[in-house]
Design brief:
By secondary structure, the chain is an alpha+beta fold. The protein is about 35% helix and about 20% strand. The strands form three sheets. It has an eight-stranded mixed sheet with strand order 4-3-2-6-5-1-12-13. A five-stranded mixed sheet has the order 7-8-9-10-14. Helix 8 crosses helix 9. About 50% of the residues are buried.
Length: about 400
């Protein structure tokens, strides 16, 4: 069996990953907290870890009587506004034509309403546009040019979302790696596209050397070369979700993203799909997702989790069941599943919560473990409970040259 660079990364990184976990003793392990006795704190907010820095302000707002959806939006708006966060909003990584396209949805538990937008260009805070769709129209979802025109009519300014940094990374992708589209993992004719082991190592070194030269020619600072090359080779799927629950038992959720980097124009993932990227039922709880959007759409992940909780499953059990459905779709074929990852953020109406993931972390993310961010009066990040041991490998694998 060919031994790919990704296999090498996975095996070498696993050792450092375990050491990294040992160094994180200050973090509470999520599994222990998720199985605590049924006396849960409210209000509480649960979000993807890139919302960690924005939880304090949002929690204060929620604790002082603020609406649950408005509180959740305060969290996700932070990364949307941050040009250095390449997963959402301003500075999000673009599609293959160099255009940033954003998706978002929200659900307001107390009034049982929802709003969503997909494929939106030139508007930074699409999470707020999704709420405007909910508040100002009789629709649930607007997409593309129509959604952009609606946003402008609602007072959202048009602006260029492609920063100089993300423009240069896109150019690096365009000049060195823009031929990677091919059959998806679920295609019956999918075949492994891994570079052969010999003389793979030398070919790989030459490829990275060439990419570093192109990065330098494009004006990417030397200390950012590795990060830029990583984003080119392993297109990220960054997203942020947040759910909020107040002391009255009111609950809401929202999800926003710039989607898969270098995607085909018009591609929409799970984030704006009610029931996939986000789902809230005022009587039960809320769930959201980050990861491989196509896989999550196929299992209606967020809705599945909430319905599982309705049937009596704990948040952790409900999330693990959704992950197992993703694995079932591949007949538990680990050769394919290693290229898939998913993280679910789950909040039950009584304040019980969970963070679950398909794998421990991404091999292409410096072996950092998946985490969720929580604030229930104490802000913290907790490691997810994973279905499979080890690290997921980013799609796509390298195209074979033999």
């Amino acid at each position: 069996m060919p031994f790919s660079r990704r296999d090498f990364l996975a095996t070498t990184v696993l050792g450092s990953l375990s050491l990294g976990f040992q160094q994180e003793n200050k973090e509470q392990h999520s599994q222990a907290r998720q199985l605590r006795p049924p006396s849960y704190k409210t209000p509480i907010m649960v979000s993807a870890n890139n919302g960690f820095n924005y939880l304090d302000d949002a929690y204060t707002f929620l604790h002082n009587g603020g609406d649950t959806l408005d509180a959740a939006l305060r969290v996700v708006k932070g990364p949307e506004d941050d040009p250095n966060d390449t997963s959402v909003g301003l500075g999000g990584l673009p599609n293959e034509e160099g255009v940033v396209e954003l998706d978002a949805c929200c659900m307001h538990g107390p009034t049982r309403r929802a709003g969503a937008v997909g494929g939106v260009r030139n508007i930074k805070n699409v999470s707020l546009v999704a709420k405007a769709v909910m508040d100002q129209t009789g629709h649930v979802m607007l997409v593309g040019e129509g959604a952009e025109r609606f946003a402008v009519a609602q007072g959202f300014p048009r602006e260029n979302l492609l920063t100089e940094n993300t423009r240069k990374i896109w150019l690096l992708w365009k000049e060195t790696h823009s031929d990677w589209w091919g059959p998806g993992l679920s295609d019956p004719n999918w075949k492994k596209r891994i570079l052969p082991a010999t003389p793979k190592s030398e070919k790989w070194r030459q490829k990275i050397k060439h990419m570093e030269k192109v990065a330098a020619d494009l004006g990417i600072p030397p200390h950012l070369h590795s990060e830029a090359i990583d984003k080119v080779l392993f297109p990220p799927t960054g997203t942020i979700h947040c759910s909020a629950l107040n002391e009255k038992g009111e609950i809401s959720g929202c999800t926003t993203t710039s989607g898969l980097a270098w995607k085909l124009p018009g591609r929409v993932g799970d984030s704006p799909i009610i029931g996939a990227g986000c789902y809230t039922d005022q009587d039960i709880g809320s769930a959201g997702a980050t990861g491989n959007g196509e896989e999550n759409i196929k299992v209606a992940g967020a809705h599945t989790i909430v319905e599982n909780m309705k049937k009596g499953m704990s948040p952790q059990e409900a999330g693990m069941d959704a992950l197992k459905r993703i694995a079932r779709n591949y007949n538990n074929d680990m050769e394919r599943l290693r290229y898939v990852d998913m993280v679910y953020y789950i909040l039950r109406k009584d304040g019980a919560y969970a963070g679950v993931s398909l794998w421990e972390g991404y091999a292409s993310d410096n072996a950092k473990p998946h985490r969720i961010a929580i604030h229930d009066g104490a802000k913290r990040a907790e490691k997810t409970v994973n279905l499979f041991p080890g690290l997921s490998q980013s799609w796509p694998p390298k195209v074979r040259t033999d």
